Amino acid sequence: MIRVHEALANLLLVLPKNLFPFLLQHFAFGNALHDLRRSIRSGLQVLKDMILDYTSDVVPQGGGIHEITKYLLRYIMSLLDNGTSLKIILVGDEQDGKVAMETLQDIVATLISHLEIMLEKESQRYKDAGLKQMFMVNNVNFVLHQVEGSKIRYLLGDDWVLKHQDQMKDHISSFINISWESVMYCFHVKTNKIPIFSNLPTLQIFNLQFEKTYWTQKTWKVENPLLRSNMRKSVSEKLVQAYSTYLEKHKNKAPKLMKYTPEDLEKLLSDLFEG
């Protein structure tokens, strides 16, 4: 519709005036442009409302990137590709009683803000608390990556980027703390938090909890290769260090119950998040 408006507006400027011998026809042509502008502005508002209220039938398996996230970023790029025409459309007609309406920056910022609210609601549909964070990590990273590598960055500004980089760090930290909590807990308190294992030796509890968490998360997917590598590294550094420290402190007893060496853990963790 934006391109249709641009074509009609240009046509009105270049056509010989003798094609519009009567003022009425000229007025009707201009009125059609006015109606088209109103339709485009109305459509943008409808889209913002739809995103805010959206609920999907099924959330992405393994905490992957939501289709709405991909669609909206493509749509925003399309808006920017037609930015010059859209800026004209976003200026209200005098007969609407407004001179200035939303800017392109306002619209893009609102669309992404509504997407973030929708994603937060969608994340609550996952039963696993770690998977909720995995979903947010994937989707926030996708939005951030698209913004950083495109014209959207210049529209939203560096403060927006820095804020969302901090959000990413928080989501990753929350993911590790929540989803690996039961494994890490083995080394700190002997585990009234996991009463079913309370009479087992610490390393046996660790083996059970590690395998349960590992095989669960092996089916989860981090779609961005760099992010996947960084998250594996973050999990590995935290877990292997705690494990190695425990083995060192209990080196007289540990070998009898040790199923994994620290190197074994590193190798296993390097296969995480492939989906």
From TrEMBL:
GO MF entries: phosphatidylinositol-4,5-bisphosphate binding
Function: Component of the exocyst complex.
Sequence ranges assigned to domain Exocyst complex subunit Exo70 C-terminal in this UniProt record: 28-271
Family classification: Belongs to the EXO70 family.
Keywords annotated in UniProt: Exocytosis, Protein transport, Transport
GO CC list: exocyst
Protein name: Exocyst subunit Exo70 family protein
One example of a Gene Ontology biological process annotation: exocytosis
UniProt entry tagged with the keyword Metal-binding: no
Top-level taxon of origin: Eukaryota
